[in-house]
């Protein structure tokens, strides 16, 4: 690990955000992006320019297109575009330059103006308001089609793509049938397909557990699926792995079942207690989950035997890179039950060495007091940067982090849905890049809006 470095965010329109990064940020970069970053780093794209239309502020030389906005009619004629745009992925489409977007809708029983319309053959629970929508884009970025991919689910927050080109969407709830009007149990993962031969089956992948799911990442070599749990109360969530009975089996193979296990770090009951970047833990073990369906007791409350289990507050983003899985704890607050305070952690787990390493810490020596100014959805940029969605009060940004730890505002949500006295700006979510790296796609959670941003991303 390189020496600890600290960089205060203070340029490119982000003055006063007060976010401090500590750790080897270069550790987060992989592949061609890492090579470009090593060649000279990435210093941002300049200050943000106010958008005269009041939607999205971007640096000079960048432009956006609104692909979809809640309440507008979907091209399929199935109803209005649903609300609460959240996790998203961009996959290659059928033909050169074409892109397929899959987008989650985190509609709760009491939230979201527009529900995901119930579509025959694609609806799990007719009382569920969440789900996914699919967008087909032409080579010029225009929307060819927009339709329901999955309906009747609940609080679809994040998820992750599979190596075989599908999307695993996650329910961030543990509501049972009869709760909040639901007809079926919720808290599951579902597989959503695009192609005609990947016809979505609206049935949960129950063996992957019933808990407050956030994100997943799949090891392309072994087919193991890693899962984060964003539990709202103490004891906090766990980090899981799912060992499928049909590893790397392609579309539908996860329905064959498997074994769910939770991570145990010896001597560390709470990851928030670790604040020094570069700290490593060898001998990480995985403990079988006693009752993955949480029939009587939520998984995080279950008895994992001698040695207990390792918890962490706000486990959210998750991605695969450099033969390891990276996962994010967005923040920890001691007054809410965590062992310590921080404004974000990024962890790396190497399955070959069974080693867990704290790579980056956001704070805690920062002026930030609200949990919102912390990492939520993250993705790697083609130019070697790490893109971080901000989630909290006040102005909301997408930040870029370069290999040297420098932080720069890439976009700001200019949509004020409150008042001049009490402005409200919806969080960003679902940041991702097109397969060719030329376009950044990102969602504004509320009002639900999907943007396509083009510009010199590879500079």
Automatic annotation (TrEMBL):
SUPFAM superfamilies: 3-carboxy-cis,cis-mucoante lactonizing enzyme. InterPro entries: PhoX, TAT_signal. It comes from the Bacteria. This is Alkaline phosphatase PhoX.
